[in-house]
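Notebook entry, cofactor series.
This is the third protein in the set we're modelling with a bound small molecule. For this one the ligand is fe (ii) ion. I'm keeping the input format identical across the series so the outputs can be compared line by line later. Sequence and SMILES below, as received.
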Amino acid sequence: MKFRLLSLVLVMSGLTAVQAAEVNVYSARQQELIKPLLDKFSQQSGIKVNLITGKPDELLSRMQSEGRNSPADLLISTDVGRLYRAQQLGLLQPLKSNTLEQAIPAALRDPAGHWFGLTTRARPIIYVTGKVDPKDLSTYEDLAAPKWRGKICIRSSDNIYNQSMLAGMIAVLGEEKTQAWANGLVKNFAQPPKGGDRDQIKAAAAGVCDIAIANTYYLAAMFDDPKDAAAAKAVSVFWPNQSDRGAHINISGAAVAKFAPNAKQAAQLLEYMSGAEAQAWYAQTNHEYPVVAGVARSSVLQGFGEFKADALPLIKLGELNQQAIQVMDKAGWK
Ligand SMILES: [Fe+2]
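Returned structure with ligand:
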């Protein structure tokens, strides 16, 4: 009897392994910003999604320590600098997908297919309305001019967003000019860098500085938050470098894990996320820009206006990350 029960259990678990397709997602995006989309994917595909959320760098450490035994199939993270790092650490595998190549512009994915951008975010100049005349604003480069002494709020150099922004400047201007720029910008700080992007906008609204540098989704989300809405309404977006390379952008994206036990299902989920319906939901929920052409932007983002985005292949931001960090260190950017 005991033996028969055991064989029955074995037969049943064997069946489960064959029948129930699943995919394990490691997500740096919070549960509520991704789960409904994954549920929809499960409904449509019959593939069960197991979601693990965590901080971006923690997820990478976890994948590293799990090594070949990692259950991770799909990594969802933000900022190309981090996705590039994951690839450098040997945590990703390349994916060849015509669907993804057609849907996602080439500059927003790894040429070798290790990672794919799913949304973009921009890092514009945000100024206090009425305090700064937008006619006095032009480029990121101009923010290093002496006329902005003590007027700029920006977070610390250990944050990937600023590292990526600097890397983008090095790619176009070269290291020497970027160094001179960083030196000048640091002189213009209103205070030693502290807090996140949202804190820079709040500091500007509170009168600490005239200008903040922050990612678009932070400002967009502040409008929904009763405690930050007043600060959001006190500032305006200025799109820099519109007559040359365009405003700095970055991505949120996803990648198939190197040792993915369910690589096929991971690819299926990634392709699903590049579809128009998924793009619309995902971008709107995260206050980001869809990567797929023709998908509508949220009304808040529409309010920020049209802009020319830097067309630099984003892999450059990963490649130049270390150089960017050195430039910031030399400039005394805390
Ligand atoms: Fe962020």
